[in-house]
Specification:
The structure holds two protein chains of two kinds. By secondary structure, chain A is mainly alpha-helical. Chain A contains 16 helices and two strands. Chain A is about 70% helix and about 0% strand. Chain B is built from 14 helices and no strands. Classes of the chains: A mainly alpha, B mainly alpha. At the A-B interface, helix 1, helix 3, helix 6, helix 7 and helix 8 of A face helix 1, helix 3, helix 4, helix 5 and helix 7 of B.
């Protein structure tokens, strides 16, 4: 195949720039050049249409009364009215916000601290050993992690209650305690992600100019002063980006986690929007109401993530994508 | 990191000792629960009852629990289902993602920007589980492995990562191949893929871990228990506490009162069995994921 002038012109164009009008006339010719690439994309594109765009269309059942014999009846925002007047919905919304807030406050800072500590470790082999250990839980499923926590928190023979018992205190059944179950979510999230997430901050720390440390050393800075005045300022942009992104995901309190830590005793404390959608939709069969709840979350979530993206881009130059 | 070759004061040594012990404490918090389960699963089943959650040493030694597990039909089927689903979806995912990413990474491709937006929309707007369920139902995928295999078969995040990688392929290489008369498919196969080996390995590991760990969709789309992947078998047994789901299939006397078998030990073994493939590829994960993230290639 010979390279036409047009292709070269195309290749030289700025990647995301507007196509000049001269190019428009040669769309047909462009197609002849580019069809192999569209063929390469075809399976992926078809996948996105079927599994991501058809569901968006399918979500119209949130505005419909489902009937066994089609067609369904358009009922407008009736299901949303039902939803917003349901106390359970407000409860799951509040639960979602509480759990997300707890995670931002108590989970988010941990990997930053881990990264700062890891950076102080001399000796590559020792540091690699620590990293290899603490990254592991990130790659385990929530089913497995729930299994591990059920064992660790068991009132009869779990490690935590063995320690509590050592101090002569009564064992606590954390998994079935309405007062502690949200903290179980927080700690299991830390267990799973604190190690791995520290990698992002460690990468930012390593990118800090070594000369800054040398200069600080000459000025007689000690370890804490170097952390305070060189390392932390150096990773503030990364912290800001990740914080905004986390905030953008605020309504995702993590279905996969909650569904494995939930039981009849504690459900009212950790029932979130996603588990609510799952329960009233797939278990009770109120498809329209469940879809309405899902759409509510999807729209609000979309606004938040786009806002987070724009804010992050503006403040730090790095966005979500 | 600054080179600390100067003499250290006692205070600095104390600081360092505190840092090291804090991190070692985290290591223990991470690894000890798994070692405890390992110890329980290899203990003499009759001696498991009194074992502390703190120990990492088996009480007696027996492979009884592991024998029972690997001979349990529900576990065997779960294992085979998981392996099948994970392998097929990983291979399919890598192939489709690489093809699409290569095309999307070509500067000047008409519609490139529009397709990017088209993909990004799917990340930002997810209408939820119910519409997803209806699509799978319509396509007749309920109770089929394909409802799991096709789920995120092209993951938008991984696609973007790979596009960013392919964009770095030197233009001169491609132009040279074009002058040699290579067609786009040949360039993809002989130029792009070999250059992207480590990126592709990373993506493959992503897909592998993602599909191996998937349980929610399997739980809601597969009614037929014989199609359940290992995660769902584990969930039913350990999280739901449903002993019959696993035990009922075999002679339940083997597991309860009659013999010495301990449910706690079986659960421990079952958890570890489900982790085993992840542990097997963990060295690769460390190699590729860590490198990828450190080089800033995997911001997603």
């Amino acid at each position: 195949m010979t390279v036409s002038n047009e292709l070269v012109a195309d290749a030289a164009m700025p990647q995301d720039g507007n196509v000049p009008t001269i190019q428009r006339r040669s769309v047909a010719k462009g197609m002849r050049q580019w069809w192999p690439y569209y063929l390469m994309m075809a399976p992926g594109l078809i996948f996105f249409v079927i599994f991501h765009y058809f569901p968006i269309w399918e979500a119209k059942i949130a505005f419909e009364q489902l009937r066994i014999i089609p067609p369904n009846i358009w009922v407008g925002i009736k299901h949303f009215q039902t939803l917003f007047s349901s106390p359970i919905f407000w409860q799951v919304l509040v639960n979602t916000l509480i759990i997300s807030t707890m995670k931002i406050v108590f989970v988010f800072p941990v990997p930053i601290i881990v990264a700062l500590l890891l950076n102080e470790i001399r000796g590559g082999a020792f540091r690699k050993f620590i990293q290899s250990a603490i990254y592991l839980p990130h790659f385990l499923s929530w089913v497995v992690i729930a299994g591990v926590f059920i064992a660790v928190l068991s009132p009869s023979d779990g490690a935590v209650n063995d320690i509590i018992g050592f101090f002569g205190l009564q064992p606590v059944s954390f998994m079935t305690d309405t007062g502690s179950i949200r903290w179980v979510l927080v700690f299991s999230e830390i267990w799973r992600s604190a190690g791995w997430d520290s990698l992002l901050y460690l990468a930012a720390i390593i990118a800090i100019d070594q000369e800054l440390y040398d200069a600080a050393e000459i000025d007689g800075a000690n370890r804490w002063q170097k952390i305070r005045y060189v390392t932390i300022p150096g990773i503030v942009p990364t912290i800001a980006t990740l914080f905004i992104l986390n905030a953008g995901m605020f309504l995702n309190a993590d279905l996969n986690q909650v569904i494995n830590f939930s039981n009849d005793v504690v459900r009212s404390k950790i029932d979130i929007i996603d588990t609510y959608v799952y329960r009233i939709g797939l278990q009770t069969g109120e498809y329209s109401l469940a879809t309405a709840a899902g759409l509510f979350k999807a729209v609000l979530g979309m606004l938040m993530i786009v806002a987070a993206h724009l804010l992050s881009k503006r403040l730090t130059g790095k966005g979500v994508w | 990191m600054a080179a600390h070759n100067v003499r250290r004061t006692p205070l600095e040594r104390l600081e360092y000792a505190i840092i090291v012990s804090t991190l070692m404490f985290l290591v223990v918090l991470t690894v000890q629960p798994l070692l405890n389960l390992l110890a329980i699963s290899f203990s003499d089943p009759g001696k498991v009852a009194g074992m502390s959650g703190l120990t990492v040493v088996p009480n007696g030694f027996s492979t009884e629990v592991w024998n029972l597990l690997i001979n349990n039909p529900a576990v065997q089927r779960g294992l085979l289902n998981s392996i099948f689903i994970t392998l097929v979806s990983t291979v399919l995912g890598v192939v489709l993602t690489a093809l699409m990413a290569w095309a999307l990474s070509r500067p000047g491709l008409p519609g490139r920007r529009a397709i990017f937006v088209f993909v990004l929309v799917t990340i930002v707007f997810e209408p939820g589980i119910i519409p997803d369920y209806f699509i799978n139902k319509r396509l007749g995928l309920l109770d089929s492995y394909w409802s799991l295999i096709l789920f995120k078969v092209v993951n938008a995040w991984y696609l973007i990562i790979l596009v960013r990688f392919f964009e770095e392929v030197p233009k001169e290489l491609i132009e040279a191949s074009e002058l040699d008369g290579a067609n786009p498919f040949q360039i993809f196969w002989y130029v792009a893929l070999p250059l992207a080996k480590s990126a592709l390995a990373t993506i493959a590991l992503f897909y592998f871990v993602f599909h191996w760990n998937e349980f929610f969709r399997a739980m809601i789309y597969l009614n037929d228990q014989s199609k359940w992947p290992l995660q769902v078998v584990l969930r039913q047994f350990v999280v739901e506490g449903d002993k019959l789901a696993m035990v009922g299939v075999v002679d339940s006397n083997n597991y309860t009162g009659a013999s010495q078998i301990n449910i706690r030990a079986l659960k421990a073994g079952m958890i570890l069995l489900t982790i085993a493939p992840i542990l097997a590829i963990y060295p690769l994960i460390l190699k590729f994921f860590t490198k990828g993230t450190m080089s800033g290639a995997l911001k997603g």
